[in-house]
Amino acid sequence: YNVVHRGDAISVQTKDRFHELAAGRGLVLDPEQPDIVVSVGGDGTMLHAFHLYKEQLETTSFVGIHTGHLGFYADWKPGEIELLVDSMAAAMSCPPLKTVKYPVVQIQIETERGTQTHLALNEFTLKGGEATLVAELHINDELFEMFRGDGICISTPSGSTGYNKSLTGAILHPSLDAIQIAEMASLNNRLYRSLGSSMVLPKHHHCDIYPKKKMNMLLTIDHLNVQMNDIVSIRSMVAEEKVSFARFRPFPFWNRVREAFIGEIVE
Ligand code: NAD
Questions:
Q1: What are 194-207's pLDDT values in tens digits?
Q2: Which of 43, 75, 208, 222 is catalytic?
Q3: Fold (CATH) for 2-98+247-261
Q4: Spelled out in words, what is the top-level CATH class assigned to the domain 103-240?
Q5: What burial class does residue 24 get, using C-beta atoms within 10 Å of its C-beta: 0-12 exposed, 13-18 middle, 19+ buried?
Q6: 150 is catalytic
Q7: Are strands 123-128 and 178-186 parallel, antiparallel or unpaired?
Q8: With CB atoms 3.0 to 4.6 Å apart as the test, which of 39, 61, 66, 259 could cross-link to 46 if both were Cys?
Q9: What span, in angstroms and rounded, lies between the C-alpha atoms of 131 and 145?
Q10: Ligand 1 center to residue 163 CA distance, Å?
Q11: What does the alpha-carbon distance between residue 182 and residue 122 come to, in Å, rounded to a whole number?
Q12: CA of 5 to the centre of ligand 1 (A)
């Protein structure tokens, strides 16, 4: 196992306690090739952990402890680490490990310097850095619309509760192999037209964005930001790889959604 933490006092303290308990239960620390990566912090920490181990998704599972408010990817509390370590030790001595697998989005960025491929756990966004983003949106190699606006967000089902939700995108259950395209403040008038609603694309469909103006553009991949001025196109699709989360007890997705966004229901 390995632990990735946020670095604040409570996360460091939780990480130290985790190592202590794990050693007592015979769990082996292996930062190079861990079977389980424990993220201690918040959803941002899980995004960080995912990007550290994204080359090993086939053999690595993730589990999250939240040291702040309940996270979408972090459902264990610091007070429960003894139970978590016991569950991990029991699962490691009696494989296979129980996991849930969520889809991730693959993006292929074509630039004048070559092609780069990335995976995102939540979403990727493209924004016009200096001016309105003007871009052709193609779906399955056919021109769908000319987008004009602040930007485009392409999210995974588990990321649909993140940035996508603020853009009024739908919330998708992570058992669906799909990606969602949401607009950021599109220009819609007699001259310019884009769909206005978000779209959900199934596996094996793809979407290509061709920016029409050569300018500095801002790309985000989960918590990471990059500026690029030579983007030719960006292709997005459901990735072949999936991310695995170790499940030692049930916590249904819709319960997480309700707890995060609805809270107590007043009758
Ligand atoms: P951060 O720490 O400021 O996180 C922003 C918030 O997003 C946190 O409250 C976090 O718990 C929440 N979050 C992250 N992933 C989530 C998910 N899948 N479902 C529900 N909530 C989620 O910033 P960061 O650590 O850099 O995280 C980057 C993420 O923040 C992005 O992937 C994006 O989803 C989100 N974000 C949201 C907005 C927005 O809603 N307007 C803007 C930028 C980024």
A1: 999 999 999 999 99
A2: 43
A3: Rossmann fold (3.40.50)
A4: mainly beta
A5: exposed
A6: no
A7: unpaired
A8: 39
A9: 19
A10: 6
A11: 13
A12: 17
